[in-house]
Design a protein that fits this description.
Elements: E1 3-7, E2 27-34, H1 35-39, E3 41-42, E4 45-46, H2 50-68, E5 75-79, H3 81-92, E6 94-100, H4 105-114, E7 119-123, H5 144-151, H6 173-176, H7 181-190, H8 201-214, H9 221-224, H10 238-243, H11 248-261, H12 266-288, H13 297-303, H14 315-326, H15 332-344, H16 349-362, H17 367-377, H18 383-394, H19 406-413, H20 418-428
Parallel strand pairs: 1-2, 1-6, 2-5, 6-7
Antiparallel strand pairs: 3-4
The structure holds flavin-adenine dinucleotide (FAD).
């Protein structure tokens, strides 16, 4: 009997996961940790640091345990996804692959290669604009405001599908185990259990409950969202959304429910507004694909041939880039933000805008190096949100150049210097 492979890479969760509800008769749940994405380099910069790797190992391990409670096994592979999935399909006599529709160009390319050996079905599990609102890419506005104005009035986010898992038909844990040795070796070697904070499904759902329902922090989000440090100034949902441990539709429905049951104000609206930014970049990436990684981003792509040659740096720029990465530029506001990133894997949105502007305009460094460094460090790394925002500030994405006056920004958002002191003093200890 033929078997279906269900690739859960971008939906590492039980809730609102259409891939776990498929009617196929015999199914194998599968995750591939792509070697290039975690051990490769771009422009000489490692694509992931230890924390990002540990986080990925932790959330996959967590999903495996959750599925085991339903007697569903999880095959966990490490290496090149096209090669590994093709081999697995041969071994298991699988003819079909189901997966979440990706956004990142390398994931899309892998699926198109796989479609030569398997019948591939992609479901858009992580967007707000599902059918029938799926935008036509040829008509997709290239600026956020027209995108929002066009789609917001129509937006009816489909309710999350949280029906209980049908356990029949899945390969169980003991049938999956023979495939898992490389992954388990990585777990032994890199010890994800040592991570203090993990964006697992349970943690994400607890966070949503706290931010929206228990603490009602959502009611003041618009006023607090530009803060630089703290626990509740923003939702902190970016990492679970990026990893796929939280469904964006589920988050959206919580906000709508809160607005209906408790209160709706500018702040509750603003959280949805920010989720539309995430949505905007997702569709922009589907539209312009790998052009986003060219020197001139999508701007050049509209006028001529994209230039994919790697960034070139003078000796002075190389030195400046190094100081920026380590948070040693001598500009306290920049250094505190970069040191926070290096220590925690996170940085506020305000901080990200400022350090990006500083690297591009004050230090004259190619924006793609900043994006590559963020990719390595950010625990909420998301291809479209990261590269899209960097290109935006550099003026080669969906906006003209955005230069920030760092001194003014520091005065406005850290008037008493408490953020800078808290970070730089703790680093000095
Ligand atoms: C240079 C730069 C790089 C960035 N890289 C990433 C990245 O790799 N991954 C990532 O998720 N976000 C990225 N962002 C966007 C934003 O900074 C983070 O989403 C936000 O700081 C995460 O914190 P939060 O979840 O508490 O956000 P909240 O303020 O609570 O916002 C709620 C959600 O809205 C979405 N969102 C908010 N702002 C943006 C935005 N500007 N663009 C896209 N989505 C947004 C996120 O999914 C976020 O979780 C980047 C921004 C900049 C300026």
């Amino acid at each position: 009997m033929s078997l279906s492979l269900i690739l859960l890479n971008d939906t590492l969760r039980l809730h609102d996961n259409p891939l776990l509800q498929l009617p196929a008769e015999t199914k194998a749940a599968l995750v591939v940790l792509d070697y290039q994405a975690f051990f490769g380099t771009q422009y000489g910069i490692a694509r992931a640091n230890l924390s990002r790797l540990q986080q990925q190992l932790a959330v996959i391990t967590n999903l495996k345990q959750q599925l085991a409670a339903y007697n569903i096994g999880l095959i966990t592979l490490v290496g090149d996804r096209v090669q590994l999935i093709s081999e697995l399909a041969r071994n298991l006599n699988a003819t079909t692959l189901y997966c979440a529709e990706p956004v990142a160009p390398d994931e899309r390319k892998a699926l198109s290669e796989l479609s030569a050996v398997l019948s591939v079905t992609q479901l858009d599990c992580n967007s707000l604009l599902g059918e029938p609102l799926r935008p036509r890419l040829s008509r997709l506005p290239d600026s956020f405001t027209p995108f929002r104005k066009q789609l917001e009035p129509l937006l009816r986010v489909s309710p999350p599908n949280n029906t209980l898992l049908p356990a029949e038909g899945w390969l169980n844990a003991s049938l999956c185990e023979p495939y898992n040795s490389a992954f388990e070796q990585l777990v032994m070697q890199y010890q994800p259990a040592l991570l203090q904070r993990v964006a697992s499904e349970q943690d994400a759902l607890t966070r949503v409950a706290k931010f929206i329902w228990q603490g009602r922090h959502i009611l003041t989000y618009k006023e607090t969202r530009n803060q630089l440090l703290g626990q509740h100034y923003a939702s902190f949902c970016s990492a679970p959304l990026a990893l796929g441990t939280l469904s964006v539709r589920q988050l959206w429905q919580h906000i709508v429910q809160f607005e209906q049951d408790i209160a709706a104000n500018d702040s509750t609206y603003w959280l949805k507004f920010e989720l539309l930014w995430r949505e905007f970049f997702r569709w922009q990436f589907r539209k312009y694909r790998d052009r986003w990684f060219s020197r001139q981003g999508i701007k050049q792509a509209m006028q001529g041939q994209p230039d994919f040659s790697p960034p070139r740096l003078s000796a002075m720029q190389r030195n400046n880039f190094k100081r920026w990465c380590t948070g040693q530029t001598g500009i306290d506001f920049i250094d505190a933000n970069m040191q926070l990133l290096n220590k925690t894997g996170l940085m506020s949105n305000r901080g990200r805008q400022n350090v990006a502007s500083y690297l591009i305009y004050d230090l004259g460094v190619d924006w793609r190096l900043g994006a590559a460094y963020f990719e390595q460090r950010l625990l909420d790394y998301d291809c479209a949100s990261n590269w899209g925002n960097w290109a935006y500030i550099a003026g080669c994405g969906n906006s003209s150049a955005r230069r920030f006056n760092i001194e003014k920004q520091a005065q406005m958002y850290d008037a008493d210097g408490s953020f800078v002191r808290a970070i730089l003093q703790s680093s000095a200890r």
